[in-house]
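Internal QA ticket QA-208
Title: Verify multi-chain structure generation after dependency bump
Assignee: T.L.

Test input:
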Amino acid sequence: MSEKVEAKKWGMVVDLDLCTGCQACVTACAMENNIPYTGEDETAYGRGLHWIRIQRYWKGEYPEVSPTHQPVMCQQCGHAPCEPVCPVYASVHSEEEQINVQVYNRCVGTRYCANNCPYISRTFNWFDYPHPVPESYSLNPDVTVRRRGVMEKCTFCVQRIRHAVDTAQAEGREIEDGEVMTACQQACPTGAIIFGDLSKKESAVSQAARSQRSFRLLEELGTEPKVVYLKGGGNYGG
Amino acid sequence: MQRKKPWWQNAGLRIGIALVMLVLLGGAATGVVITQKAPQQPIEFPHNFHVGTGIPCAYCHSGAETGPVAGLPSIETCWGCHQQLRTNTPRLAKLAEYGSTNTPIPWVPVFIQPDFVHFNHRPHVAAGLECKTCHGDTAGQTVAEPIPGQNMGWCLDCHYKMAPENFTRLSDCATCHY
Amino acid sequence: MAAETKTLSATHSASQEGEDLRQEHLMHDPKPREEMNGMVMEAMQTTSKKYWIALAIFGLGVLILLFGFWGNQIITGMGVTGKRRPVFWALYITTFVFWIGISHAGTFVSAILRVFKAEFRRPFTRAAELMTTFGLAAGALFPLIHLGRVWTFYWMIPYPNARWLWPNFRSPLVWDFLAITTYLLSSTIYLYLPLIPDLAMARDRSTGWRHSIYKLLALNWRGTEAEWHRLRKAINIFAFAIIPVMFSVHTIVSWDFAVSQTVGWHSTIFGPYFIIGAILSGVSAVVMILFIIQSTMKNMKYFIRLEVFDSLGKLVLIFSMAWAYFFFNEYLLHWYGGYQAVRDLLTFHAQGPTAWVWYTMLICNVAIPWLTLWNRKIRRTPLAMFIITTLVNVGMFAERYTIIPLTLGEQRFPFDWGAYSPRLTDISIVIGTFCLFIFLYLLASRLIPLIPVWEVQEGQMAHSTRKLGKGKVTSVAELE
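Actual output:
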């Protein structure tokens, strides 16, 4: 078992032309990752813990307006601003999966990473959020339930990645394209989200990422995000 | 004139400080001992006898080869054999109680990890590790006994010793914490 | 024996002139050592009813406002404060920077004025150094208070552990931690060294519990030639060594912001900008404290004269100008840089719904000192100085508030813009640390000789007046 396994580069493509802003991915993410519901007032104050937010912007002047929806999750930067500022290595780069990892049990809660994230994609557990009985049945045993005082963020559903990797390894084969599906991808009714290995040329995600419509958020900062957005020039479907 | 003793040479003060230190240290020592002791099990299961007869570990802890959790044997697993075997010892009488009423045995797990650690048995078994590397020599134990200091450093020690060339992968935070 | 000379106006008659000099400068109004010792001891041992009431009120403030609310915050969670996404740092870090700034000037006026042999420093170095230590004590609480899980704070300390993990030395917060502990340690030693002869003085003039405390602290000081020699040497070394430490500490605090990607923080000017701001607010705080000491404690009018307020007033004016320069510079740089998000942010500061904070900052930091402090009469009115310096500190607090919550609320994505408003817990804990500072200072004012008597006397011995032509000159003999 000494041969080096080449580092995988998990990546995601979000097709903004297909996104309808239906928030299904937000819900699916909350279900998969044990994200607590903070309630109407707290969420309105800006303390919702969603790992994906559908940013909605209006184009044009009323009444000729059309919305654009832009789901923003952790961009899993290759050169992440959140990593060097954490004093305790709780926000750390996973060399194996090439994503940013948030280690909940190491986090001391300085919240510096969140300040330094240009995408503002990190959320903080302001309280211990209860999971009352019917809700607690739906908790995912593969994901830690976070306590108060720690940061959290989108993990690219790393528990699913780990499961697929372990299974493939035990069966002695490579991971297939499409074997790992993130929760948001699974839930997206229009198939706007594609997830996979960016380092493989033939995978669906790297084919989509090579599209002429592709761009990355705040590319000028040099963060090398792993999430690619697709957006055409015209007004598709308003 | 007799010199007045400074306050720090006061006998009462010194005894008081000694008592406080004793209570603190004693409490800490007791805590350490209690957490490292084998917990009380519903049946004092003799691992030594079962291992001695040559039963493989995975016969009872069947999840170890296929999934993250090895699991503790259900009443069916025990009763499957013991229905036909001797029932004349006090331990087996207890088992018979559970077996005849078909109530699950409330085993107390010994090797437990905190919620934020996702240990997976499968890759460890697939890599050819023996159970006793982590769980100790159960052939010499009745009920399973915890291994003291089984913490993150303990895991990393082994990961480094077993596969230094894969240490980047095996020391990745996301391998266990997510 | 080099001599510095200062010429004085020669308009008055000789005797009148001598009287003026005596009234004006403590250094020209010598008293016997024994009398000054007695005055300081008396000031230290006199406690009025008002003092005890104030001590009790501020002590209660520490208990309830600081520790009570902090305890509740630890048990309930950080959500009891007003923070939200995207304003993850708010009033706590604002006050942290404020206290570190305050703590700066104690060392600044003491060490730098000592190195440059500014003679007016002699009576108030101790008061300023105490301010440094207690300001740091209050400020150093905030990195702990603002932690989400404060019970794991020791993970930021480098120590060998079973997890094979060290703190991340690339993180400015670790630099912060190291810088602040270094500064706390060195400024405490710097406070303590010149204190030893005064503690010995107090030891010889007190009885009972005071005597045993001073005896322990005075380290058997006897005042031999060798002891003085070593003490002077040590103080000299520390005065030089602590200046780079002092500059680096606030630069490192500014790096908490400057090394990040955050709009409005990512600026190379932050190091000197923060230092100037710190000294401005700190020197102002020295004036505030000196006014309170001078007007409430016995015998202090003799030691703290108008010349002190006059000179510190000039310092405040100069640093206010320097601060304004950096403030302008920041705008210039960002105008030249032309990054749209920063421009929007700076416009928001000046024109958004929270523009009053921005205007408070400019009025208190620039307009008020510039309009008043050029006037010698105002500089020599302690009450006016107290009010002006209080306003400067309000302005500096507003500056930090602008830099932290108001900047975090307006980042690159307009979707995420959000306003922070402090809640009861934020405000209570901030007020609680003010109580802590005042409480510690009140205690220390009755436990520690606030005036370094030996330094004052040393200065008085070195000063003399000589006739030179028509006028009189002050000559200062350099000791050692």
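Spot checks passed. The beta strands of chain A are 10-15, 53-59, 66-72, 91-94, 99-102, 123-124, 151-152, 193-197, 214-215, 227-230.
Status: verified.
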